[in-house]
Amino acid sequence: MFPENFLWGGAVAANQCEGAYNEDGKGLSIQDVLPHGVKGPRTEKPTEDNMKLVGIDFYHHYKEDIKLFAEMGFKVFRTSIAWSRIFPKGDEETPNEAGLKFYDDLFDECRKYGIEPLVTLSHYETPLYLAEHYDGWVNRDLIGFYKRYVMTVFNRYKDKVKYWLTFNEINSILESPFMSGGINTPKEELSQSDLYQAVHHELVASAWATKIGHEINPDFKIGCMILSMPVYPLTAEPSDVLAAMEQDHKNMMFADVHVRGYYPGYAKRYMRENGISISVTDEDMEILKNTVDFVSFSYYVSVCATADPKKNVRGEGNLLGGVPNPYLKASDWGWQIDPKGLRYVLNTLWDRYQKPLFIVENGLGAMDKLVQGADGEMTVEDDYRIEYLRDHIRQMEEAVKDGVDLMGYTTWGCIDLVSASTAELRKRYGFIYVDRNDDGSGTLKRYKKKSFHWYKKVIETNGREL
Q1: Active site residues
Q2: Across-strand partners of 231?
Q3: Nearest-CA neighbor of 261 among 281, 293, 291, 284?
Q4: How confident is the model over 264-315, as pLDDT tens digits?
Q5: What is the Cα–Cα distance from 275 to 193, expressed in whole angstroms?
Q6: Who contacts 236 (Cβ-Cβ below 8 Å, separation ≥6)?
Q7: Residues 55, 438: Cα–Cα separation, whole Å
Q8: Is the dihedral of CA 40, 253, 401, 233 positive or negative?
Q9: Among the listed residues 184, 168, 174, the one whose alpha carbon sits nearest the alpha carbon of residue 82
Q10: Is the pTM of this model over 0.90?
């Protein structure tokens, strides 16, 4: 049984849904030059084939969309602030008032329906200027720019937003330095020392945000956000077990620092043995002691690890990759489906930290088909999505029975949006279908899918009826 105050809801990111990429004083973000997602080449300037430039035009449709979220009964809505709406280049001293006003209106609309905003401060949308002129988070100056940004929005929305996340999937910087860290140096030319220097700067900035936020409003609940991908040994051979542990360490280091306030020994060993040298000040180490109130994470897929180079063949997976599990089926995009892995992750994180947990992304990207329903209305018969979510929610309930303190659950892409990994709209996650296609055609009209009504019942019954 889920707690009575459980936060059911859904999640989006500004860069994947808002559109309006150049309206009301907004500057360019790194997403505006990634027309093919994380794996495709970047462009010098925005191009018409970049679906994110329009997204689903949430910027102009947010009132009707939030009304639909309220109809489903959302307790919480996770979104992000586009940093370049507030500081168009990222290094200005004065914020853009039009950008601040938009989020005032957005959060007011949420609160009108009793929906708590859960706001990510940096969700894969570093201002492009900071990437091109500072090399992103490799440069220590970004800590100061980020501090100014978070101080601005914390003060502005201190009475409208209670729940905050500092960086989205912060550990993804290891695989995607440009999208995750705004690092302009090509990945193949980026040294491990510079990469881990950027990691350190983000961790310090995150701790600063926690400190600043608690000073501005002691009632703020500020969490970290990691890309969670459990790593199983491919076999019971001890070297495979150790390979899984070492791969898991690369991700867990980020949560360890956020929750414990210092670098774990295994991270220091990894940097030492791989010749990674980073600059760390005494002030940095003191600031890192500002630890988070809760741990949030995305969960889509699990992977395996092996020490056998012949078997160590990476699957498609999420950003962090991994060896496919021979016992699991995969989605249309090669992401292996593992509901039980969610229970495993929840228990692992709870046992490790004893901090409240929040699942802020989970969902199934699929090629939905709009059809006419029995009532004559257009809909999507997405039983496959209902099955996926039902199986994961059941494992969440098992984890709660295990004693895990779980705050809430926001499904990813509660309304269709543009995929971060592939920049496609045909990879749909939502309970709400948006009539827009990868060729840019469509009316942007919203339609309720079958899962819309199913999730409404789940929330209504606090998870008793699945």
Answers
A1: 361
A2: 303
A3: 291
A4: 999 999 999 999 999 999 999 999 999 999 999 999 999 999 999 998 888 7
A5: 8
A6: none
A7: 10
A8: positive
A9: 168
A10: yes
